[in-house]
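Journal club side-thread
Mid-discussion, someone asked how the predicted structure for our own chain would compare to the paper's figures. Pasting it here so we can look after the session.
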Amino acid sequence: NVAMQQMGFRNLLKFETSKMVYQIPLRDILYITHDSVERKSIVITDYSEFHIGKTLSEIFEQLSPQFKYSHRACIVNMERVTKLDTKKKLITFDNGKTIDLVSNNHKKELKEYVNAN
């Protein structure tokens, strides 16, 4: 945590809506996806979904290195990934939730991260 703070990374994702200020611990985030209909990013945690009026690239700048793009519309917390199936393009998280947002452009980087850790 100290090293992350010295490098400028935080343990929280901070954002505000018109009524509230939120601080979500990074360890609670499973993934972040973009909703093209609402034109908002959606932070998915174990306990809730948060709709943010920021782009994925703006959010990605606030995240630590364990977060990787799995798709152009999805950022994944690799610390929460228990299984990566690149053939079926599925990611399974430690709480049992599964998503199918793995693109060919990002699967190599995801596999390298899984193999290194």
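Post-session note: Residues 107-116 form the longest helix (10 residues).
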